């Protein structure tokens, strides 16, 4: 079944007040609802009320207090006929139904994790709790009473404010919560169980006092400080940058170890994957600390961009996700505390976009940031909707300026607070607040694919005139053979010895446009798409000399990094080793005392294999791996002295701080360590083993272990054993242990990683129903370890097919994610391509596939 954006109809009925009474029992939870129903925008007298419900046991229905028998039940719906006065006036529906949380392995709706109850309702999980108008344009006020046995569930949480608690007979108790803000069902949440919290009271901009809580299992309380600090920083940042204040008296975050995604912005009761809450230096890496900061911010920012103003329908998902990712990226950039820190954050974000979103945009699942069609909405929580969506929001800010963007945001809230709206509404707020025509900008919402911009230069020395011609195109994507030109903001600057040219913003709107620059005294070097101002591919043939100039001196840090990436990429794809000039350029970067260590680390990190694949028309994954690895080894060897010196200079003595400065130093130190092992594993492995043993933080311990494992050092084995024993009781650290082994590239003389992964799959600590564990073993291998995964005999693909088929009956959402690992199969050379196709067909032949996996496989095979 396919859903289409243009088939949207407003609801026939809508809800006002909703009261829920939920008696929690893992085997049989009884859900009673009392709903005030009103005519909606598509109402016609006599229309039936069609509620959706999934995996529910229906018990009873009453209307206006009377038993009602005029209804039909299907596996997905409850249709109610013969409504009082043809449905024209408000009426009350009361439903009783039952669900079974302990059997719910999909982790959507109400489920049990480590004996506690949690919910996940976005996008369509509420229908697994009770029959409802489970769509985001129906916004209701919720009052929720939770009941449970007090011994098993001392804590009972839901959205909003706690208005009552009671002791009940037989050891039961109850808590009643009221959320003052109308909300769609996808923002509903409940949590119940044995949890404890840390709390803080803060004063927000209006002078109001607010209670902040972070709820976790008792043994994790000591790992919540960083999340709390991140939450407080987010609250202050949103007040300062966007004038947006926390609107509730109480704001809660809860951590759960079984969770499909990163986290969820339920109103006043955010629920998080433990991975994005729990951290202390001994168990979490710098990357973990940074991710926690950004996910906490992301979910908090949704309170305005998502909750106060929500989406009309799920095709508009990027309205809240693209915007909220942009906001969290800006927040994290500001938290870096320096201009160079902001640039580092920008480079990291773009690297992710190119590694994950560019392939998606070129593959069978390509879709615009506002899709036109889907079979299963869970498959559209994608890097396109999120990360490309964020790039599109960033382009408004680039076009309108920071102040103009803020004006647009202010107008957006003024117009739409409390409403469920569309991406067009956002665009119109930006346009109207700034008096700017953004009609053509809409193409970013409707067209898939990464635009290509061809750059042609002409310098006339006699006239001292420079001409720049930009030509845009965009390859066809599924359902979109032809594309209209995009509105592309390109920041550019001409680099000259005289240093007399300013940065400018070019707006490329035609298929092809030429700009002329006068009084350019010498042939300049062009720096374009500075700070990655538009999510495009540049088709720009530059001489190695020009790239080296940019690499050593472009004043735009992003483009400086970019020049280095381009140099390396061209050489790797041509199977060349770095020449003396490049080595010298790398050396200068490493020795430059004015450069941020984090920037050096990014500069000396080579383009990912997945990004290199996208530059080819027929990918031989083993050749690319070998060429990239040889290139890396050469940098490692040629600069061995520098790496050794940096390893010493980048030490961070004193107490551990996860800030941008120290984490940048650790990153460069640990890159140096890895490079030393790349150059001469036998010589440097003892130093890595020593770092492993004496480290007082996870960043250094893990990096040392990774260097040993990745380079096949003999010390790897005993350190892995030590690591497991040391952290056996800490699930998130054990995920790292699994993940590291599954991501090991091929190493001469060792068993293949596939053999190791098959053993890990049988390890007693492996669980197919825990998404984090599945990701750390199966995804890490199939999606993040290309050289081990892509074997000419197809053994990796067989493992993939077995895993998708095993996972699908347990958790279709996680299975569908994994299914996407073969998206780009058509890009590969033989025999890889045929073997991938065979594996896809084997999965496709399964008669009982979930709609989730069916959609992904169907699109991959082109049905
Ligand atoms: N809205 C959440 C976020 O971006 C993601 C939840 C998606 N969950 C799902 N099951 N599709 O933070
Ligand atoms: Zn989000």
Structure notes:
The protein has about 850 residues and is of the alpha+beta class. The strands form eight sheets. Strands 6-5-9-3-2-12-15-14 form an eight-stranded mixed β-sheet, with no helix packed on it. A five-stranded mixed β-sheet has the order 17-18-19-21-20, covered by helices on one side. Helix 5 crosses helix 6. The radius of gyration is 28 Å and the shape is globular. The mean pLDDT is about 100. Arginine binds near residues 123, 261, 262, 299 and 378.
Poorly predicted runs are none
Number of strands: 31
| Order of strands, widest sheet | 6-5-9-3-2-12-15-14
Using only CA atoms, what is the Rg? 28 Å
User: Biggest sheet, in brief?
Assistant: 8 strands, mixed
Structural class computed from helices and strand pairing:
alpha+beta
The helical percent reads: 40-55%
Query: Can you list the ligands bound to this structure?
Result: arginine, zinc ion
Task: State the end-to-end CA separation.
Answer: 13 Å
Strand content: 15-25%
Shape by Cα distribution:
globular
The overall pLDDT, averaged over residues, is: 98
Provide a count of the helices. 26
Protein name: Aminopeptidase N
Domain Aminopeptidase N-like N-terminal: 88-187
GO molecular function, one term: aminopeptidase activity
Cofactor: Zn(2+)
């Amino acid at each position: 079944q396919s859903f289409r954006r243009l088939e949207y109809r407003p609801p026939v009925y809508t809800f006002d007040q909703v009261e829920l009474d939920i008696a929690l029992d893992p085997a049989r939870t009884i859900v009673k609802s009392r709903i005030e129903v009103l005519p909606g925008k598509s109402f016609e007298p006599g229309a039936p009320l069609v509620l959706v419900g999934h995996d529910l046991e229906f018990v009873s229905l009453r209307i206006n207090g009377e038993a009602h028998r005029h209804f039909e039940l299907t596996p997905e719906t409850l249709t109610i006929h013969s409504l009082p006065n043809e449905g024209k006036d408000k009426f009350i529906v009361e439903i009783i139904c039952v669900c079974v949380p302990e059997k719910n392995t999909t982790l959507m709706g109400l489920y049990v994790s480590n004996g506690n109850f949690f919910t996940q309702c976005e996008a369509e999980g509420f229908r697994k709790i009770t029959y409802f108008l489970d769509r985001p344009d129906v916004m209701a006020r919720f009052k929720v009473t939770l009941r449970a046995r007090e011994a098993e569930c001392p804590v009972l949480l839901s959205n909003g404010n706690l208005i009552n608690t009671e002791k009940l007979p037989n050891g039961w108790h109850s808590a009643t919560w009221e959320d003052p803000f109308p909300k769609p069902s996808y923002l509903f949440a409940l949590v119940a169980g044995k949890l404890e919290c840390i709390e803080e009271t803060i004063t927000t901009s209006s002078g109001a006092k607010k209670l902040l809580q972070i709820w976790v299992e008792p043994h994790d309380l000591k790992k919540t400080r960083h999340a709390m600090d991140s939450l407080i920083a987010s609250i202050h940042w949103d007040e300062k940058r966007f004038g947006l204040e926390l609107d509730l008296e109480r704001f809660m975050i809860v951590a759960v170890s079984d969770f499909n995604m990163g986290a969820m912005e339920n109103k006043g009761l955010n629920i998080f994957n433990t991975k994005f809450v729990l951290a202390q230096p001994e168990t979490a890496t710098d990357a973990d600390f940074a991710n926690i900061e950004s996910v906490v911010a992301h979910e908090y920012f949704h309170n305005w961009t998502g909750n106060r103003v929500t989406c009309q329908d799920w095709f508009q998902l990027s309205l809240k996700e693209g915007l909220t990712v942009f906001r969290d990226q800006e927040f994290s950039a500001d938290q870096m505390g320096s201009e160079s820190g902001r640039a580092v954050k920008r480079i990291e974000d773009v690297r992710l976009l190119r590694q994950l979103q560019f392939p998606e945009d070129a593959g069978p699942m390509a879709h615009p940031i506002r899709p036109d069609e889907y079979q299963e909405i869970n498959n559209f929580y994608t890097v396109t909707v999120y990360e490309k969506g964020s790039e599109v929001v960033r382009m408004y800010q680039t076009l309108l300026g920071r102040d103009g963007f803020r004006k647009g945001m202010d107008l957006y809230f003024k117009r739409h607070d409390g409403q469920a709206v569309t991406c067009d509404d956002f665009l119109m707020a930006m346009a109207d607040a700034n008096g700017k025509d953004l009609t053509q900008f809409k193409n970013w919402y409707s067209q898939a694919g990464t635009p290509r911009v061809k750059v042609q230069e002409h310098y006339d020395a006699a006239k001292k005139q420079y001409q720049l011609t930009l030509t845009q195109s965009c390859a066809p994507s599924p359902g979109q053979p032809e594309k209209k030109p995009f509105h592309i903001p390109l920041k550019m600057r001409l680099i000259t010895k005289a240093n007399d040219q300013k940065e400018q913003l070019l707006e490329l709107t035609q298929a092809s446009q030429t700009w002329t620059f006068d009084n350019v005294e010498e042939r300049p070097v062009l720096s374009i798409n500075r700070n990655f101002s538009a999510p495009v591919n540049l088709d720009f043939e530059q001489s190695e000399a020009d790239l080296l100039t940019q690499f050593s001196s472009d004043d735009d840090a992003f483009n400086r990094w970019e020049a280095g990436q381009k140099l390396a990429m061209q050489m790797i794809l041509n199977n060349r080793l770095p020449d003396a000039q490049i080595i010298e350029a790398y050396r200068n970067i490493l020795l430059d005392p004015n450069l941020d260590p984090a920037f050096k680390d990014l500069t000396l990190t080579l383009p990912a294999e997945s990004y290199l694949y996208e530059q080819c028309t027929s990918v031989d994954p083993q050749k690319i791996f070998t060429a990239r690895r040889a290139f890396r080894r050469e940098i490692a060897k040629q600069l061995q002295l520098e790496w050794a010196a940096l390893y010493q200079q980048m030490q961070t003595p004193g107490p551990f701080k996860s800030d941008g400065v120290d984490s940048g130093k650790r990153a460069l130190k640990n890159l140096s360590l890895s490079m030393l092992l790349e150059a001469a594993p036998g010589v440097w492995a003892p130093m890595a083993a020593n770092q492993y043993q004496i480290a007082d933080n996870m960043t250094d311990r893990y990096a040392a272990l990774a260097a040993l494992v990745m380079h096949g050092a003999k010390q790897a084995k005993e350190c892995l054993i030590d690591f497991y024993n040391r952290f056996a009781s800490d699930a998130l650290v054990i995920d790292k242990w699994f993940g590291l082994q599954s991501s090991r590239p091929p190493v001469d003389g060792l068993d293949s990683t596939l053999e190791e992964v098959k053993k890990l799959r049988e390890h007693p600590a492996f669980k197919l129903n825990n998404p984090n564990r599945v990701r750390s073993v199966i995804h890490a291998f199939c999606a993040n370890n290309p050289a081990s995964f892509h074997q000419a005999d197809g053994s990796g693909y067989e493992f993939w097919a077995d895993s998708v088929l095993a996972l699908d009956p347990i958790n279709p959402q996680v299975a569908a994610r994994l299914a996407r690992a073969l998206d780009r199969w058509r890009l590969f050379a033989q025999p890889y391509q045929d073997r991938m196709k065979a594996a896809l067909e084997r999965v496709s032949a399964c008669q009982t596939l979930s709609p989730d996996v069916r959609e992904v496989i169907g699109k991959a095979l082109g049905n």
